[in-house]
Amino acid sequence: MKYNYLIIFLLVSLQMGLKAQSMEEVLKKTFEQLEMDTSYQNKLATTNRLELIANKWPDHWAPHFYAAYAQMQITFFEPDVKKKDPWLDKAEAHLEKVKELKGEADDEWEVLAANMASSRMSIDAANRWMKYGPIFEEHMKTAKAKNENNPRVYYLRGTSLFYTPKEYGGGAEKALPYFEKAKELFDAENRDDILDPYWGFLANNYFLGLCHQALKE
Fold first, then answer.
1. What is the DSSP letter of 22?
2. What is the rounded distance in angstroms from the CA atom of residue 7 to the CA atom of residue 169?
3. CB of 67 within 8 A of CB of 55?
4. How far is CA 25 from CA 57, 193, 201, in A?
5. DSSP assignment of 116-168
6. CA–CA distances in Å: residue 46 to residues 15, 27, 62, 79, 101
7. Is there a contact between 142 and 109 (Cβ–Cβ < 8 Å)?
8. Alpha-carbon distance 105 to 96, whole Å?
9. Sign of the C-alpha dihedral computed for residues 111, 112, 113 and 115 taken in this order
10. Mean pLDDT for the chain overall
11. I need a surface site. Which of 1, 22, 27, 28 has the fewest CB within 10 A?
């Protein structure tokens, strides 16, 4: 009960703060908080703030983009497996709104759509890979064709390989070159403009460390 009151207080406080800040300012601050959050409760609170931002500025693609991203991320922290798909249903609605408002499915949209397929598959990989694996691959192929220098293409490929068993062509050794390529491209990105997506660079560094550690063992 106390936690519910805290969430309500935070959302009301944010709504008041939105009046004094530009969309870009509040979106950038909230997104970067999401990237730093490591616990379920913190991630949940920040995800809810991004949903509120999307409701505040419903006619701009960026709030929907980051709300979708956050709702995909929360599924990896959500302890109740029955709540994971509903989160992704909400994320998918925001993702479609992004395409509608931008008027196109650019490389960033395709990458996030690939991330959506990966998130769906991760809930029950044994039973879902045949459906969502090809969807993931199609979006990845299209994203790379649109912009081969998008670091998130290589980051997502790296994570896919990292979690694929060695006997099926995956593992840390196979994934490492993709994380290294992603790092080169991430390092060249400008992370000042929230309207130019730059998500993934912190997670990519984390996976680089995991790969190096695994290869030393």
1. -
2. 44
3. no
4. 13, 10, 20
5. HHHHHHHHTHHHHHHHHHHHHHHHHHHHHHH-TT-HHHHHHHHHHHHTS-GGG
6. 13, 11, 16, 17, 23
7. no
8. 9
9. positive
10. 92
11. 1
Closest CA to 50 of 33, 66, 28, 74: 66
pLDDT digit string, tens, across residues 23-78: 999 999 999 999 999 999 999 999 999 999 999 999 999 999 999 999 999 999 99
Closest Cα to residue 66, out of 37, 100, 91? 91
pLDDT tens-digit map of 88-113: 999 999 999 999 999 999 999 999 99
How far from 15 is each of 7, 8, 49, 88, 151, CA to CA, in Å? 12, 11, 9, 24, 33
Q: What is the DSSP letter of 78?
A: -
Burial of 138 (C-beta count, 10 Å sphere; 0-12/13-18/19+): middle
Per-residue tokens: 196: 């130019």
Distances (CA, A) of 213 to 116, 152, 187, 199, 210: 28, 22, 22, 24, 5
**pLDDT at res. 211:** 97
Looking at the chain, which runs of residues are DSSP E strands?
Answer: none
Q: How far apart are CA 78 and CA 198, in angstroms?
A: 24
Rg (CA), the chain: 17
- Return the closest-CA partner of residue 208 out of 173, 164, 169: 173
Q: Which residues of 106-125 are buried (b: 16+ CB within 10 A; e: fewer)?
A: bbbbbbbbbbbbbbbbbbee
